[in-house]
Structure formats: C-alpha cells, structure tokens
Write a structure and sequence with these properties.
heterodimer; A: mainly alpha; B: 495 residues; alpha/beta; 5-stranded parallel sheet; 13 helices; binds flavin-adenine dinucleotide; binds fe (ii) ion
C-alpha cells in the first residue's frame, strides 16, 4: 500500500456512494440466523453499531481540525459514511427482529461514557492523536469484527451490505495511513515534546480512562461469542505493519504510542495493564443509569429506516 | 413615453445602449438623460424592469442594507415602510424611477442580448439580440447584473428528481406549500430570509447545509409615522440619516474587510447571537462557521435560528450524495423524500465571467481574456474593448455597504467617458493595457490582506481562489477613485 493521492481520493469517495435503499431489506435470508446465535449476535451488532457511531463522531472532530481543505472534506464524508454503517447495521438488526420500530440499541455503560467524553472533548483532541487512533480502531473493526461476523452469519444480505461497508473502510484506511505518514514529517523532537505535553493533559487521561475499558470489554464480548484471540493479534500486527512500513510512518510518535498500547491490549497475560482496566470495566457497569447524563443530540440522528 | 419614436429607431446608430433594466441600467439612463444624452436605449431580456428585485420575490425577500442607504441618493424616498424594506417595496421604488424620470421610452423589453462586437474603424458596437435586426451604438454599458443568473448546485443526478423544483430567484407563487414536505438547499443570504417564512407554510421543512455562515441579528423595525412625515417635510433630515448610515457601514468595513480587533468583536457578537438562540450543543456546533467573519458574506437575521428549531424543521449537514426521483440521498445512507425542493443556492457571479460573447479590437474575446481571472481598469473599462463600460465589473463589490453607492460612482464615471466620446467625436476611447495592469497589481496586493482571501471558499472567489469580485477598501475610497476620469490612462482615436 503506497501513499495515496488525497485529491484523487476525494473524487473517488464522491463517486462510490451508496445508500440503504440500494438493498432489499425484505429479501429472504433473515431466517438463517439461528436461535442460538441470536442473543449474542444482538449484543455484538449493538456494540458494532455503536462503535461505528462513535467513529463517526471521531471523524467529525477530525473534519474540524483537519489541516487542509481537502482533508476537511474527506473527513466530512467519512463522518457521514460511518453513520451510514451504523444505520445499515441497525437496518440489519431490524431485519433480524432485534429492534422495535423507532428503537435504538442501548449502549453499554462503557459506550455511554465514551460518548460523553466525545461530546465534551473530541473537538479539542489533538488532530495527530485522533488521526492515528482512528485507523487503529478501524483495523481492529475491519480485521476482526467484520471478518468474524461474516464467518458466522449466513444471511446473504448481510454479506452484500458488508461488502459495501468494507469498500468504504478500505478507503478510510488508505487515507488514515497516508495521513499518519504525513505526520512523520518534520523534526522528531518537537513532535515528541508535543506528545508528552498531551499525554499529561487531564482531558486525555479522562479519555484513556473510558477508552481502555471499552476496548477490554469489546474484546471480552468477542471472545465470549467464540472468536479466537488470534484474530485480534493479527489485526493489531496489521496496524503495526502498515503504519510502520515507512520510516516516516514510524517517526509519527502517536503511532508508536498507539500500537504499543494495542499490543498490550490484545495480550491478556499482561496483568499490569489488564487487572486495573478490567476493574474499570466492572466499575463502569456499576454506575447507575440515572447518573449517566442524557445522550447528546447527535445520537438521535441514527435510524434504521432507509427512507426519511 | 412622450417620444415613442426613440424606441423604434433600429436602423440608426444610437449614442448609448444599456443592457439591463435593473438599478444600474435605469440609473445609467437617468444620469445620461441629466447630461443631455438622450439618443439611448435600454435592452432588457425580461418583460419588466427591476432586475434582481423583480426576480427575487420569494417569501421574506428584503434588502440587508437599510433602505435609506440602499436607494439612489438622487431619488430619495421618504416613504420606506421599514428599516429594511421588502423586495416588493424595492421593486415599487424601481418602478417609480421609471415613471418619475420618464424612462419608459428608452426600454425595449423581451430583448435578450447575445453578442457584442466592436467595429474598430467606424467606432461602434454591434449588438446582436434574439431579434433578427442588429443594433448599433457608439458606446455600450453592460448593466446585466452581478447576481442575475440562477445557479443550481453541483449535485450528481440533479435532473433525476421528479418532484416540484423552485429556485429562490424564480419563485413559484402558485405552488401551495400547505401540507407539503419541503426541502430547502442552501443556507446563504436568501435561505435565511426564506426559512422563517416557509417553516410556517410547509408541513415539514428540511434544510440542507453545506457550510454555515456567520449570522448577525437584524435590527429591523417599522418606520414610525413621524419619521416619514419628517423626511417628507425636511428632505435634508433624510439626507443626514443616509449619511449617518453610510458612516456606520463604513466603520463596519474595518471589521469585515480586514482582520482587526473589530473583526473579533463582530465575531463575538455573532457567536453570542448563536449561543443565545441555540441551546443544543450539537446544533450549535453544526451552525458554527470554521472561518473568520467577513471571509464570506455575513448574514443578517434574528429569526433564522429560532425557525430552525421549530418542531417541523430539521437541519441536515450530511453531504449530499446525489438526487433521486423522489428526493435527496445523503452520505449517511438515507434517502430524504420531498414533495418540493427549493434551491436557495445563489447565482453565477457576473463579475467573474463575460455575460455573453464580447468581441473587442482585433476580434479578441472577453471570455477568453478573462479565463484566468476577470480584470478591468477601476472595475469599469477593459483594455482592448473601447467605448464599453461595466457596472459591477471586476472588483467592484462591497461586502459592508450599499451596492448602490458603488453603482452611483460607476454611473458618474461612465457619463464622463461617454461625454468624451460624443463631444470629442472619438472612434475609440480605450484604456491603456499598462494602466489596467498596474491597477490590478495594486488591487490584488490589497486583496491579499483581506478577510475574503483568508482561506475560506466563497462565491467571492473563483474555483481557483482568484478574487475578481470584491473591492478591497472603503466605499469612500472607491468613490474617490471613480470621481475623476483619468484621461492620462486612456488612448483616444478620433473618428
Ligand atoms: C436577493 C438579493 C438581495 C440583495 N440585497 C442587497 C442588499 O441588501 N444590499 C446591496 O447593496 N445589494 C444587494 N444585492 C445586490 C444587488 O445585485 C445589487 O444591489 C443591485 O440590485 C444590482 O443591480 P443591477 O441593475 O446591476 O443588476 P440586476 O438587478 O441583476 O439587473 C440586471 C438586469 O439585466 C437583465 N439582463 C441580464 N442579462 C441580460 C441580457 N443578456 N440581455 C438583456 N438583459 C439582460 C436582467 O434581466 C436584469 O433585469 C442583492 C441581490 C440579491 C439577488
Ligand atoms: Fe465503519
Ligand atoms: Fe471507517
């Protein structure tokens, strides 16, 4: 994967749009979901769809801090495309009888905290951090979650929809890794000092406090569903390989931090990391619902209906 | 009206042909008439006068410069009913110019100009219209308007939509909005005027926004009765009011044109206005511009934000992917279906391109010459195109003051030029290329320091980011530069 021409990419993105109405949501195949699969699949889809939605909000923040007009427009599209993924996944859930009319899946407590954090701080998060973190999450999604889903679900419509979603994701990754390499340009020490400054920023520490447990609980959900841990390792390796394929990419200090963290995250034998983080997971699950703030209004934009 | 023969002289060479019967064209005729130049005609493609105020009769249409300033100084109107008059009232004012100054006799309606070509030996312009017979004139004034041609957005499959389509500048007064699901594309100057009206008429209104603009509150009010009678009895009181308004808007230039402490202050006001009227953080974020105030046209409205928050109104900021038979598909994957789509998407900007084919000396083509960016001398003459005058030519636009102040300077300058052609019997009065170049280097240098060129995309700039629209300075500066016809910058060739 060589660095891509971001100007051409913008046009490519515009030329490859799709919509929920492109699919027949009543077509046969929904019955292929087994009764045994159903409850876990429901949790999985809800998590997946919320992750897309949270990713969408991340792109919205990137669009705001993007250094060029072109990237600003690309991220504006990606923001909407992640929303499209969430909408399409909700439409699948509706098709499989996992949602009532007008119902949205309930986010886990962890996700609620992440949403709250995004609402407060996403727009102030340094561009370089978000622009490196999002590709990592996308690799994890693309490489592990989606692949796993397609291996276990036989509904042909699901496969058709995810073919489109994965096409979008490959463009997201193409842009993501190109931007990560762009960040490797310039004097190393300045970037390092900036990074160290950010690492002690309380807003970012708060972010880590909600984000680390989210990853851990997602990982546990996946493993509970029967996914091998191997898959997560491999997707993290992929992130490391592509992100670090050039010296420029490796010189992006955020890449170093994030891939290091990713490696620890998937390695469950690292107790120094996992014991406290798992405690945070348990803790956040104990927060009474009524204490969580009302979700921000961007959450209300989600819909499973192809036509408005 | 008393001399209908003028209207029928097609065979002879007229002294001046004016293209367009909006504010500029009619104002030109008035000024020429006052300079005793009567062998003139106004060609208008429509069947009525009024220009953009005839075309923009959408609900809520009004000026956003106070009427006492947005009118001709030589034709004061004591009767303006509001601070910011409606389009309807402005159109009435324009019609009153026609009757008060007896302009009817000059106007040829339904005459669409297609082509101008200069005969350099004989020194006249040939004007080709829809009609078979060509017209001839020693001078031509192009007053076809800076914002006269509707622009539709560049959305894929635009034609596929089968529902009702309306452009804000060609309103369909017969369409009944009640009970309808309506979309409005655009959030510019027209949109913020239409939305508060339409939201009360339509069953549901969805707004599609690409980029938000800065919105300042508009302090509109009915004119009290005593003011109208005061203006009627003591015209100098109205003149004084106009001067005060002018000065006030000139101060605004400090904030709007250049980045100054006033810019930050104005931006703060706009931000506070938004935060005061919109409480939801996400909606606030969607409506917050990411550029400095002044970079794009600043909007004036006190009822736009409240209208957006009506229960039957929704703002959509997802990019539009394409049109479909029943509506608009956005990138978030949803097809939004409507009974009617209103395009409040503005105009093709007249200052940036030739309005029709214009052939100058040696057959040179204006469209070709302006391909890399429109240029003129003092916005009004173009080297190689003698005896031709532009209103709202390149770099003549105000961002902070009444456009008509600029027009008046242009009219005055054009009269001086036309008088030279007629009195000295010139075949060609042509601005020197060097002088034009020098002028434009100056203009572009000054533009580079303005807010318009500070990095946002706007209709002030071409696709390549060239600013051929705005005049980088105060209206007063513009008036000073236009007050004196610069003979030394022109080549004159006797007939
Ligand atoms: C909705 C709107 C609101 C505005 N509000 C303000 C404001 O508040 N303050 C301000 O200062 N400015 C405002 N403007 C700017 C406005 O364009 C100018 O103020 C001014 O009215 C322009 O007058 P004009 O005569 O030059 O052009 P127009 O009014 O556009 O008149 C041009 C005329 O030329 C005719 N024409 C065009 N091409 C041809 C052709 N080929 N052959 C024959 N005839 C032709 C057209 O039919 C039209 O009648 C506004 C513009 C619009 C559109
Ligand atoms: Fe996605
Ligand atoms: Fe993605």
């Amino acid at each position: 994967m060589a660095s891509i021409d971001l100007e051409k990419m913008r046009q490519k993105i515009k030329d490859t749009q799709w919509a929920l109405v492109d699919f027949d949501w009543e077509s046969p195949g929904a019955e292929k979901i087994t009764a045994k699969q159903w409850p876990k699949l429901k949790t999985f889809m809800a998590d997946l769809m919320w992750i897309e939605h949270v990713g969408a909000r991340g792109f919205a923040a990137l669009a705001k801090s993007a250094p060029t007009e072109n990237l600003r427009e690309i991220y504006t599209y990606f923001h909407a495309e992640e929303q499209r993924h969430a909408n399409a996944e909700m439409a699948l859930m509706k098709r499989w009888g996992m949602l009532e009319e007008n119902e949205s899946p309930v986010p886990s407590a962890n996700l609620r905290l992440v949403i709250e954090w995004l609402e407060r701080y996403a727009d102030d998060t340094p561009f370089n951090l978000l622009a490196t973190l999002i590709p990592m999450l996308e690799v994890a999604l693309d490489g592990a979650l989606c692949k796993y889903l397609l291996e276990t679900v036989d509904d042909p419509l699901c496969h058709k929809v995810f073919a489109k979603i994965n096409d979008d994701e490959s463009r997201h990754l193409g842009v993501g890794f190109t931007v990560m390499e762009m960040q490797g340009k310039g004097p190393h020490y300045i970037k390092l000092i900036q990074l160290l400054g950010h690492l002690v920023d309380p807003r970012l520490i708060a972010g880590a406090m909600v984000y680390f447990p989210l990853l851990n609980s997602m990982r546990d959900n996946l493993i509970a569903m029967g996914m091998e841990e191997e898959k997560l390792y491999r997707s993290m390796e992929k992130f490391k390989k592509i992100g670090g394929r050039t010296s420029q990419g490796r010189r992006n200090p955020w890449f170093q931090v994030i891939h290091y963290h990713g490696t620890i995250m998937v390695n469950r034998s690292n107790y120094f990391y996992h014991v406290p983080v798992d405690m945070l997971v348990a803790l956040s699950n104990k927060i009474p619902r009524r204490l969580l703030p009302a979700p921000p209004s961007w959450v209300a934009e989600l819909t499973h209906r192809p036509i408005a | 009206m008393n001399d209908s023969t003028i209207n029928n002289q097609t065979h002879q060479i007229l002294d001046v042909i004016i293209i367009g019967a909006g504010f500029s064209g009619l104002g030109m005729a008035i000024q020429l008439q006052q300079a005793n130049i009567n062998n003139i005609a106004i060609l208008e493609r429509d069947k009525e006068v009024g220009g953009c105020w005839r075309d923009n009769q959408y609900p809520g249409a009004a000026c956003d410069i106070p009427s006492n300033l947005y009118s001709f100084s030589f034709a004061p109107n004591p009767n303006w009913s509001r601070a910011y008059s409606s389009s309807h009232e402005i159109l009435q004012y324009i019609k009153s110019l026609v009757s008060d100054f007896e302009l009817q006799r000059y106007i040829r309606f339904n005459t669409n100009v297609k082509k101008l070509a200069f005969d350099e030996k004989a020194g006249f312009w040939t004007i080709k219209t829809d009609e078979t017979k060509n017209l001839k004139a020693r001078s031509v004034v192009i007053a076809s308007g800076p914002l006269a041609n509707c622009s539709f957005p560049n959305i894929p499959n635009l034609k596929e939509y089968k529902g009702h389509k309306i452009h804000s500048a060609r309103w369909d007064h017969d369409f009944d909005f009640s009970g309808k699901k309506v979309a409005l594309v655009g959030t510019g100057a027209s949109a913020v005027q239409i939305i508060p009206e339409l939201v009360n008429k339509a069953n549901h209104l969805t707004i599609f926004q690409r980029t938000p603009a800065w919105v300042l509150p508009r302090l509109d009010a009915r004119t009290p009765h005593w003011v109208t009678s005061l203006f009627r009895k003591i015209p100098s009181a109205q003149k004084l009011t106009r001067q005060a308004l002018f000065a006030l808007h000139e101060i605004g230039a400090l904030g709007l044109i250049w980045n100054s402490p006033l810019t930050s202050a104005m931006q703060q006001v706009a931000l506070k206005h938004l935060q005061h009227q919109v409480k939801d953080p996400w909606l606030q974020r969607q409506l917050t511009p990411n550029f400095r105030i002044g970079c794009k046209r600043v909007l004036m409205s006190s009822d736009y934000y409240p209208a957006l928050q009506q229960p039957n109104c929704k703002l959509i900021t997802w990019p539009i992917a394409r049109m479909s038979e029943k509506g608009i598909r956005c990138v978030e994957g949803i097809e939004h279906q409507f009974d009617c789509i209103v395009f409040a998407t503005g105009f093709d900007i007249g200052t940036q391109t030739a309005p029709f084919s214009v052939k100058g000396i040696g057959g040179r083509d204006l469209g070709e010459d302006w391909k890399r960016g429109a240029q003129a001398y003092k916005s009004i003459n173009i080297s190689g195109y003698p005896n031709l005058f532009l209103t709202f030519g390149p770099n003549s636009g105000p961002g902070h003051n009444s456009a008509l102040v600029y027009v008046e300077s242009q009219l005055n300058y054009a009269v001086q030029g036309i008088q030279r052609i007629l009195n000295e019997d010139l075949a060609r009065l042509d601005v020197r290329k060097k002088s034009q170049e020098k002028y434009n280097i100056q203009i572009q240098k000054r533009l580079s320091k303005t807010n318009w060129n500070s990095g946002c995309k706007s209709w002030y700039l071409t696709e390549d980011g060239f600013n051929a629209t705005m005049f980088p300075g105060f209206a007063t500066q513009y008036s000073v530069q236009m007050s004196q016809f610069e003979d030394k910058d022109y080549d004159r060739t006797p007939a």
